[in-house]
Every structure is written in structure tokens, then in C-alpha cells.
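Summary for the lay section of the report: proteins are chains of building blocks that fold into shapes. Here we show the chain for PA14 domain-containing protein and then a coded description of the shape we predicted for it.
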Amino acid sequence: MNSKTLISVLACLSVGVSAGPCKPVTSQATQVTSTTGELSTSIDLATTVSASDAASTTELSSKTTEETNTEIATTTTAVDTTSEAPTTTTEEATTTTIGAAQCPTPSACNNLGFDWAYYSNPNQNTDTTYSSFVPESFKQDNPLYVGTTRQIGGLFQPSNGATTGPIYGSTQNFPLDYFALNHHGYLYSCDAGTYKFDIPYANDALYLWVGDKAYGQWSSGNAAAKALYNQPDHIAGSAHFEIDLPAGVYIPIRFVYGQAQYGGGFYFTVTAPNGQVLVGNDVTASPYIIIIVGAGPSGLLLALLLAQKNIPSVVLESWPHLDTRLRATQYGVPATRVFRRAGILDGIRKASIAKFPSICWRRVSDHEKLISLDLSLVEDDPDRMTILPLGEIIQILYQHCVEKGQGLIDVKFNHEVTNVGQDDKSAYVDVNIKDEGKKEKVRLTADYIVGCDGASSAVRRSLFGRDWPGHTLPYRFVVQNVYYDGFQKHNWDGGNYMVDNDHWGLIARRGKGGLWRVTYGDPVRGLTDEEYLARRPAHMKAMLPGHPDPDQYRIEQTNLYNIHNRCVESFKVGRIILAGDAAHVCNPMGGYGCMTAVLDVGGLADCFIGYYHGLADEDILDKYAKVRRDIFVKYVDPRSIKNLNRVATSDPQTVLETDKFFGILKDLQKDKRDMKAFLLKVSSIEYDFTKHYKSN
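The coded shape description reads as follows.
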């Protein structure tokens, strides 16, 4: 099954099939038009379906579990029949499907496939072709077996003289004469158009119901389509049915297959308006469209952007909680635009400081301001720079994923990815699950895997080992949150790049209540963290205004890092894609690290959206990999190095005259309009992938 088909099944033109208590709720009456041959009918979708309807819709005289598990192993289903029928799925036991039990959208059912039930029924088989087949008779019978399958139809014929065999990958063998299969599920239409149901082969009988009749009213007399074996001519039955659906509706579907003697089978397909086959006997869907590894800013932002366009994802995080380490705090105009698009910008603005009027470069030796950027020129512009510690942005992203993800985002903590792999149809991750003292190893499959798991990316290492071109810079980065009233007393700017060969860094206001972030690079290598922290008072005394002693300021949190400039050889290997720090890292001077990651996932989201909604070919994902890597290599990497060298290796006494960037700022300061345009301009590190959509 190709990628585009998979997205159709799972999110856009979705066969969102509910197992057990997982039922969508439909409250809006919608008229849809259907045609069977030359007949035209109107189907009313006003029926309301809730979790309490779960048992009756299967008509299996069975009860359903009321548990709302958020983790469902594919070796079981959520059906507990009164006849104690065994259960199965078509997936191997090593594959686990994860999803919420209630169904606001198809993906919340996890697209488990169709519920199906096996019945042994020799009584109605009065001949070898099941000519007296009455499907509604099974409403009163208990099944001998129930399961869930993503693969529909096929041939059910004994081999090697056997009279039994498996169905839909079951571990149990069944008699393959005189039986029936009852299937039911839901079709979810993201796009409006004509959906086609085809039964090109039925041996012996297949009945189809679509719409409200698929619930409890189904009978041989009101089937939308039926395909019956022609005994006199020995020709298998066939049928075709079409239905026009508006976008965004659920519609139930049911089909019952009857087999008489000598083995048989059927073929059944559902085709979307764009021609993609959503389900069939040779179409099997991965449980997720996209698995995102890493619940950091890149992973959560990507999941949120995809969910806005009805593309579901699961986010796997190895930690038991969100990342709260001290990292980025300021994000340029390009990142602001992506934050707005994701719907999180208002939340960031509310949590941020009210104003951030200027950024300057200061000489450490005398704290003289060398040059500054007047950000007050754009303080009312909606695209202005964003200021907030990254840990708080991650919290906002996670809150939006939970509250506004519409059931399309499933974030799983304590899920450590150890390996990735792929074949021509899907990709997978091997995961160690550690939760409440329990350990489990599972393999999860998807259409695509996106590694957003940071600089220590397990996804990248699985692809490339420890080979990561680039270099580690000769500094130990020390980052701390500081409360010190001297910043306000000395009237320091919101952001202060400190220029010095020994005590370079950045001091910036980062939060309400007088919170500042002090970051510096220690040029000594090879010390322990304790030894680096023992050197901190000297750095702080040199850099902070008033040259304070440790008892004059308060440090609340500290993190130490090695800093690198590196870029992987390829952002995409088949169905496995890298973004953000998993693909590249740079030193933090100038704020290029997180901003570039934000632009990566914004662009990747556009590529997935374009491809899965038929607006672009699959090679747009290759375009992402090439363009975003080229941007890092050509612009981000060299600029971040220049930003670092400007404060760490330049001569503080002459840098104002020798640095080309400072020369540009001097010219811009002559005209406020020019400076404002400079502060808001589209950056060369941005790229609009929607220009590769077919409609453009």
C-alpha cells in the first residue's frame, strides 16, 4: 500500500473502523446521494451513534467491554462475546497499535480495520451456491469467532486436501465450507466527492449496506449492493455501488459474505474520489500515518500542524515528562509566523514579557554598548520576535495537542525508540516501553517515521550510526536562570551579547518577575561539571552589570552543554525523515537552532499535507530533505559560526569597525523605515513548499 493510500485510509478519506466501545457520534442530518447501477437513492445520515450502541451495531448477540483503554494490543479486540468466542487481528503479535478508545475522529479509533465475525451455518446451504442465503438471520446467532482486520476479502479455500484454514491471518483454522463472515466499520470523508464500492468477484454471496441501514435495519431486501454466484453459468457474482459524500461525515458500512461448498472468496474495494484504493483484499494499512519520535518542540509542533489538516500521528517520547531544560528563549520572525499558523502564538504572547525593546552588543571589559537593534520599531507588529523559554513553549504545545488535537495526536511518554527500519510499504520503530515498573518491547509501524528526537537522536543513529559530519566547538556552554536587580538599575537592554575572548555570552530578559537568562561559554575543556560551576562566579562578576558577588544574585536553574555545528548527510532515507536537532545542530548565538527546527517542521508539515491531500506528488518529501539541508549548510551553519566568533574571538576594541554585520546595522540605523523592513523581512532560511503544489 503506497503512502498516499494509507493517509486516505487513516485520516483523510478514512475507513475509520471502530472496535468494541469505540463509536463516533453523529448528530447532524446529512443527505447523501448514492447510485447502484441505474438506481438512485437518498441516504439519511441523521442517525446518532454513541458508545452505548456498540453491541447492537454488530448484531452478534454479544456484549462489548466498557473499558476505555488508551493502549490496545493488536493481539486482542475490545469484544467480549457471550459465547466466549476467541479473538484475532491480522497483525503479528510483535506489532502494537496505540490509540484512544473514544472516537471524535477516525484516528481516535486507531483505524483498527473492520470488526468481523465468523459463523458456521450449514442449515441455509441447500445447494452448493448458497442461493438461499439470508444474511439477516445472523442477527440471532452467536459468532464462533470475532476479530478485527485491516485487510478485506480474499480467497478462502482449503489447500492440500484440508477442509479448514485461517481467515484474515487468524491463528485458528476454520471450516471453509458452510460459513458466513459479518463485517462492519465506518467510512469518514475528509474530502467531498464520489466514493466507489466494488465487488468484482463474489463466490458465493456478498451483501453491502451503507448508511443508516448498516446499523440494525439491514436485510437482504434493502442492501445497497449484492453480488451472487450464478449457478447455471458458473459465474461469480459482481456488483458496484457509488455514494456522493460531503466532507467531514461518518457513514457506517456493513457487508456480509456467505460461502457454501468447495471453498470460495470475494474481492471488495472502496475507492476515494481521487482514485486511491482505501481498503481491499490486498490493501493493508499501517496503524498510523506518521510516527513522530520526540515530544520536544519539533515533534509536538509537527503533530499539531498535521492535526490541523486531519492527519493523525503518534508522538513517542522516551522521557516520562516534557523537557524542562534551559535552552532557547528567543525566536525570530520566521518562527513567529509558524507559531501563529499552529495556533500557539497568542498563548506564547500572554506568557511572555510585555516588551522587549532592544538587543545590543556590549564589550565586557567596560560594559560599553557597541551597537543595538531598536526592536520598539516593531513592538506592535504581529510578526515581531517571540520571547519565551523553550520549556514553557513546549508546555503550550503539549496543551494544544491534548486539548485541540481533535483526537488526532497521541503522545506516549516512557516510549524509548531503540531502532528504526522499513520496507517498500511501511516503516517501523522498535520501542522499549517503561511505565509503572513494567517493561515491554514492541514494534510500531507507520507510513513514515519522523525523527524529532534531538541532538542525541536514536532515529539518526539507527540510520547513520555515530557518523555526524561537523565539529564540536571548544567551549563548555553554561546556562542559568538568574534574578538580579542590577540589570534594571543599570538600564540594560532586553538582550545583551557580551563581546570578550574569555567571558563571552548572552544576557537577556526571559520572563516576568525579573527573570533573566545568563549564558556563557567557558573556553577551558575537560573539566567536570562541578569544576565548571566552581569557575562560574568569575564569569558572572565580569559579565553582569555592577560586577556582583554571588550573594548579590540568585540562580534558580543551571544546565551545561557541549556545543556543536553538525549536519547529517541526508534528511530522508526512504520512509524515515529527520527534522530539527535530529538532523542538524548549531551553536545558539543568534538563535538559529530552534528557529531552524521550527522552519523544518513547518515545511515538512506542508509537504505531508500537500502529498496526503493530493496536492503534490510524494517526491515533495524529497524536496523537503534537499531544500532544508541546503538551507542549513548554506546559511544557518556559517551564520551561526559568524555570530559566535563575533562575540568570542573578535577584538572587542575594533569589532565595531571590522565586523561586516555591524556595518550593515550602522547603515540601517540611518532610516527607521529601512530598519523596520530589515527586522520583518522574509529570511533566506525560510522556504514555501506549497509553491510545489499542483494547483500553483
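Put simply, here is one thing we learned. Residues 1-110 have pLDDT under 50 and may be disordered.
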